[in-house]
Structure prediction request, 467 residues.
Amino acid sequence: MAPIISMKGVIKRFGQFQALRGIDLEVTEGEVLCIIGPSGSGKSTLIRCINLLETYEVGAVVVDGILVQEDQSLQAVRREVGMVFQSFNLFPHLSVLRNVMLAPMRVRGLTMLEAQKRALELLNRVGITEQADKYPAQLSGGQQQRVAIARALAMEPKVLLFDEPTSALDPEMVGEVLDVMRSLAQTGVTMIVVTHEMGFARQVGDRVLFMDGGLIVETGTPEKIFDAPQEERTRNFLKAILQH
Amino acid sequence: MRLIDTFFNARVFIETLPLLWTGLLVTIELGVFSIVLGLVLGLGLALLRLYGPRFLQILARLYIDLFRSVPLLVLLIVIYYALPFVGIRLSPFAAATTALTTVSGAYTAEIFRAGIEAIPRGQFEASMALGLSWRQMMIDIILPQAVKVVIPPLTNNCINVMKDTALASVVAMPDLLKQATQAQALAANPTPLISAAVIYILILWPLVLLVSRFEKKMKVGTR
Prediction:
């Protein structure tokens, strides 16, 4: 089966600094891939190259058979690739319900009623039906992130990108967001999750990828990465974080 | 008593009120036209300056800087008295609207630009990631938030445009000030001028208060 995402030789520079130093990656449909690694290792940059929120100098990214580039096809790619951000990025001037309804109406051409029905179902699924008419600022961080997940799901994307979705949350709210993600993983949607939650990566990931210094150091099943890492750098990283 | 008779003469006031009234209508018409056109022009310029092709960005910037530097009175006189030499003859109303709109557009462009630039990067990214087109992103997400941020400075600009309509009296525009000076000449008494000043204040004071209230509210809003 052809991979739903494939990256070939992707190099990304920020001025002199090379954030990605040649990334080759294939993700198969339905896979849950967790990306771990130290801060500044290029994890977020990598997934931001998939929907071209970040441009890259060298290489190619293909999503569902479409080469991701700055032209008309870009919107087509982005329609199929949902993204959940570290800082939620909900639209503050729209109610929770409207946040979830907007893109399906504008981009997928759903009627108001269809969009509303879908939005309410999704809000129910992430457990925030009662807050539908509130504004984002009235919600807790965990609730906001669950709305953001519902907003991404409303487009019925083939791929979901999570960019450190729990890093900006108070500790007591991390669980509720991870629970939603865990149940999503069982629905068969392709997920790429950049995370510092090693427990989540181990339990939910089909595959774990360790990055350092803009390179993919090692990739494999959670058991392989966490219990029998081959690379020195992986071992050092895991040792450092598991001590705490 | 003489002072009151001179500056606040009731008889003169009542006699000249109809004239002042026609002047007031012209002033309001001129102000509203110029404000609305200036807003449209300003938004267009701001978008060009931020997102246009390179050379249009430079042109927009040039326009904005140029017309914020030229004194409005000079521009008005150039439009009304100099352009006829190249065959462009505008009515007083058209000349005044053009001058006011041109300058107001430059100022509102800067206001809109500041508003758009104040919107966090994440709002753009979330919109793009959802597959919204640039246009949809602007109309549904960015501009509604940006406009909310800049309502106080925009209102301030409206006040300035309203005040600057008085300059139109130098191109024989029968606005409030012009009618007041006319009435003063007829009545040989400055009461109409004082009345005009009071009318300007009565119109603009509420707007000034509104701006203060906006600003207070903003301060409460930002925690």
The radius of gyration of chain A is 18 Å. Chain A has a mean pLDDT of 95. Chain A touches chain B at residues 51, 53, 75-76, 78-79, 81-83, 85, 87, 89-93, 102-103, 106-107, 151-152, 155 (CB under 8 Å).
